[in-house]
Specification:
Blueprint lengths: L1 E8 L7 H11 L5 E8 L13 E3 L7 H6 L1 H16 L1
Parallel strand pairs: 1-2, 2-3
Length: 87
């Protein structure tokens, strides 16, 4: 299951759509992959999904301004990285 959010942080796991998607996926034992602009989790060990399943534009080491102005381009790169690491 693919889901996404602009900023994936601790608040994302407390009632936002992505938390509901993760809970539903757990119920049906399906893997979840999160795509986001920025990953900012304080305790990755407490994540309900493996941290390797979170793909962030910020991991590409581009500025926030650049990543927002060209989000489609960078999301494409992140998606390609996901494909290469998953299949």
């Amino acid at each position: 299951i693919l889901t996404g959010e602009g900023k994936f942080d601790d608040q994302s796991l407390q009632g936002k759509v992505v938390s509901g998607v993760i809970k539903l996926a757990e119920k049906y034992q399906k893997p979840v992959f999160v795509f986001c602009g920025l990953k900012e989790i304080s305790n990755e060990k407490a994540l309900p999904i493996p941290s390797k399943n979170i793909y962030a534009i910020s991991d590409l080491q581009v500025s926030k301004k650049e990543s927002m102005e060209h989000a489609e381009y960078y999301l494409g790169i992140v998606a390609k990285n996901w494909i290469l690491n998953t299949f």
